[in-house]
């Protein structure tokens, strides 16, 4: 008599446990992981924050550090601290095209007309900067 009373109770417990299990599994499946795209690297920030002279463009780690502004017609030193050779080449108009060997410096004569001059490296298409003359 005691056994027959205990069996249905155990069966109910087992059934509840199974139901709870399948409910949990079903409700947690339909979330989708949100893709996190960090695209900030694509924006070249050339604010001259790195310790560089006022009239100095520093190339380090395949990236340019450019002064905030340079005077029209000024002489700007380009310092290449990489071992790779780089260029500072105006994107348009052939305004300037300076080649700097690894570990060397070169001099860029700033255009006389105020404006922003985007430039790049002819060897490394991911290297971009902006020279602001004003
Ligand atoms: Cu380069």
Give a nutshell description of this structure.
The chain is α+β, with helices and mostly antiparallel strands and 134 residues long. Helices cover 19% and strands 28% of the residues.
CATH superfamily of the domain at 44-133: Cupredoxins -  blue copper proteins
Whole-number average pLDDT?
77
Q: Share of helix among residues?
A: 10-25%
The CATH C-level class name of the domain at 44-133:
Mainly Beta
For the termini, the CA-CA separation is 100 Å
Q: From the 3D coordinates, which CATH architecture of the domain at 44-133 would you assign?
A: Sandwich
* Major sheet description: 4 strands, mixed
Instruction: Count all strands and give the number.
Output: 8
Q: Count up the helices.
A: 1
**Which structural category do the helix and sheet elements fall into?**
alpha+beta
The Cα radius of gyration reads: 32 Å
Which percent band covers the strand fraction? 25-35%
């Amino acid at each position: 008599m005691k056994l027959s009373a205990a069996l249905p109770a155990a069966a109910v417990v087992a059934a509840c446990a199974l139901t709870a299990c399948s409910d949990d599994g079903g409700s947690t499946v339909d979330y989708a992981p949100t893709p996190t795209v960090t695209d900030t690297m694509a924006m070249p920030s050339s604010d001259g924050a790195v310790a560089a002279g006022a009239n100095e463009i520093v190339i380090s780690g395949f990236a340019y550090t450019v002064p905030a502004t340079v005077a029209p017609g000024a002489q700007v030193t380009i310092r290449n601290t990489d071992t790779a050779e780089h260029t500072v080449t105006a994107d348009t108009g052939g305004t300037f095209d300076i080649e700097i060997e690894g570990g060397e410096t070169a001099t860029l004569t700033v255009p006389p007309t105020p404006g922003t001059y985007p430039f790049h490296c002819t060897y490394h298409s991911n290297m971009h900067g902006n020279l602001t003359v004003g």
